[in-house]
């Protein structure tokens, strides 16, 4: 199965805006997701873009779907904080 899995990506932001966000970002998780999106903008496959940031292709597919649906707002990590410590 050697299909070319290029995902059509919605361009919510320009490449210049992505570069600016990458420079300003202090959140490691957001930075790797922005790098992933930038690679897709450049024409990389989902697998290659996900591999560049050290994630699985399933994670890349999930991130691409969330980006296409809602842009940066849905791509941001949203952890509930979990159970408070004792």
| Helix vs. strand class | mainly alpha
Rounded Rg: 14 Å
Instruction: Note the beta-strand portion.
Output: under 5%
Number of domains: 1
Largest sheet: none
List the secondary-structure elements in sequence, H or E: HHHHH
Q: What's the number of extended β-strand segments?
A: 0
Mean pLDDT: 87
N- and C-termini, Cα separation: 50 Å
The global form is globular
Number of helices: 5
Fraction of residues in H or I helices: 55-70%
Unreliable spans are none
Defining traits:
86 residues; mainly alpha
Topology of helices and strands:
Layout: H1 15-24, H2 28-41, H3 46-52, H4 57-70, H5 72-75
Helix pairs in contact: 1-2, 2-3, 3-4
Please characterize this protein's 3D structure.
With 86 residues, the chain is an all-alpha fold. It has one domain. The chain contains five helices and no strands. Helix 1 runs antiparallel to helix 2 (28-41).
Concise account of the structure shown:
This protein has 86 residues and is mainly alpha-helical.
């Amino acid at each position: 199965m050697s299909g070319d899995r290029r995902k059509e990506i919605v361009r919510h932001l320009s490449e210049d805006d992505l570069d600016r966000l990458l420079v300003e970002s202090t959140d490691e998780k957001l930075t790797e997701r922005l790098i992933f999106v930038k690679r897709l903008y450049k024409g990389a496959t989902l697998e290659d873009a996900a591999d560049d940031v050290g994630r699985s292709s399933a994670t890349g597919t999930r991130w691409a779907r969330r980006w296409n649906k809602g842009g940066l707002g849905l791509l941001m990590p949203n952890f509930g904080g979990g159970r408070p410590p004792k």
